[in-house]
Task: inverse folding
């Protein structure tokens, strides 16, 4: 992420087949405090795409099951999300799946 892109409302930018895609990464929060989306006055060329993601607290990875043996909902949602992967050190990274649909749409045009 560059400071210039950040000031223009994008976390990172991808240029692919003469298309400019501006990605903005947004972590879902369940706190009572809601963040207001930052709207930039400095418009940049390209399409804006939001990447929304949710990562459960570490306690859900340490103890993912309820007393009845079923998975706790935040852990289950994370496991079903094929756009994210948790590394052994606890880091969460995006998989290539998150970009595959957009790439496919551009390739079909």
Result:
């Amino acid at each position: 992420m560059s400071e210039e892109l950040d000031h223009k409302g994008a976390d990172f930018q991808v240029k692919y087949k003469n298309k400019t895609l501006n990605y903005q990464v947004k972590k879902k929060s369940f706190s009572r405090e809601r963040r207001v989306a930052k709207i930039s006055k400095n418009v940049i060329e390209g399409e804006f795409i939001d990447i929304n993601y949710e990562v459960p607290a570490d306690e859900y990875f340490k103890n993912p099951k309820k007393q009845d043996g079923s998975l706790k909902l935040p852990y289950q949602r994370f496991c079903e999300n094929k756009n994210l992967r948790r590394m052994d050190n606890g880091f969460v990274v995006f998989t290539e799946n998150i970009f595959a649909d957009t790439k496919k749409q551009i390739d079909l045009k």
Q: What stands out?
A: Residues 1-53 form one domain. The helical segments are 3-7, 58-62, 73-80, 97-108. The radius of gyration is 17 Å. The chain has two domains: 1-53, 55-109.
